[in-house]
Amino acid sequence: MSSDPVVRAEIVVDLAAVRANVRALAAHTRTPLMVVVKADAYGHGLLPVARAARAAGASWLGAATLEEALALREAGDTGPVLTWLFVPGEPRLTDAVAAGIDVTAHSAEGLDAVAEAVRRSGTPARLQLKIDTGLSRNGCAPEDWAGLVERARDGERAGTWRVTGVWSHLACSDEPDHPANVAQLVAFEDALAVATEHGLAPEVRHLANSAAAIISPETRFDLVRVGIAAYGLDPAPGHTPDLGLRPAMTARAALAHVKRVPAGAGVSYGHSWVADRPTTLGLVPVGYGDGVPRHAGNHAQVDVGGKHCPVRGRVCMDQLVVEVPDGHGAVGDEVVLFGAAPHPTAQDWAEACGTISYEIVTRIGGRFGRRWVGQEDE
Ligand SMILES: *Cc1c(COP(=O)(O)O)cnc(C)c1O
């Protein structure tokens, strides 16, 4: 008998898969990679993933917030790091500049905030400029771009910062035929030309996320910013070649209870599913309090002992119920909610829940334990 302690629910992240994915993406794109580790590395764990990405050759790491970028430095990462989301006035901008993190500005207020951080830290900033080429999220509007570039150039000449990059972000890269892709590429090239005319010579020009990096070579420029593909999930299902990417995350639990119910038994709150015949049900001890989407109710499937078993009824805060084949499934059996095929995947869950795989892996957590396997020194 195994003496392994029973684990109620845990997320297992395979860092060997992350390394293999990063290497596969580098080989396919033949372009330096920025591995995007925002949102706790899409739920996979900021620091372990950052180390795996660097070990596999990622030249850059990308973070949304200042806190994420600073956590990388605090853990000893000394390589290029880009952050792109601060609110002018956030005190930690000074720390980010002092730590040699590349910060992104897309407005006059942003430049003012970076200049103030430079004054406080006594360190020239590494500054990247972001142009809005059509996502209409952050990024400098094209009509303000020349003015922003001039100010950035003046600051560079004054020694306030070095403009290390110019970049933008795509809206529809997972739909390769969408006309916005070409329009954004043209707008980006125009913005680069304006930057050059005004005397900027950035080290890196970058536009592509995972989908564009994989599908559209013309978007690769000097650097590609890959997030979801590094975690082994497909950024554009139906449009990508098979690169052999492997999902790094497995969400697993142990069956807490198994029972037979008679025909006519309603399952879970609201009785949204009713057994039409005597049925065996398994209780999985995780719910929306652990980031399992409530939309999975009556839609997603889990794997119990190699068999795909449908979720029956609504997902509760702490529990969900699955139907298991009669005679199959015992208390303590492993339940894989999602992982690598032939298990259901995060992509399967996304389709069942009407969302994208990004949201499935990023939001799972709560009371799941988390451990990492496949460390390089193992
Ligand atoms: C999240 C993000 C990425 C990564 O996108 P994926 O589709 O996961 O590859 C790249 N760039 C920016 C600015 C992002 O916010």
TrEMBL record:
Boundaries of every Alanine racemase C-terminal domain copy: 248-373
Binding site for substrate: 137, 317
Pathway(s) annotated for this protein in UniProt: Amino-acid biosynthesis; D-alanine biosynthesis; D-alanine from L-alanine: step 1/1
Cofactor: pyridoxal 5'-phosphate
GO biological process terms, semicolon-separated: D-alanine biosynthetic process; peptidoglycan biosynthetic process
Single GO term (MF): alanine racemase activity
PROSITE patterns recorded: ALANINE_RACEMASE
EC number: 5.1.1.1
Domain of life the protein comes from: Bacteria
InterPro entries: Ala_racemase, Ala_racemase/Decarboxylase_C, Ala_racemase_C, Ala_racemase_N, Ala_racemase_pyridoxalP-BS, PLP-binding_barrel
NCBIfam families: alr (TIGR00492)
HAMAP family reported for this sequence: Ala_racemase
Function comment: Catalyzes the interconversion of L-alanine and D-alanine. May also act on other amino acids.
Protein name listed in UniProt: Alanine racemase
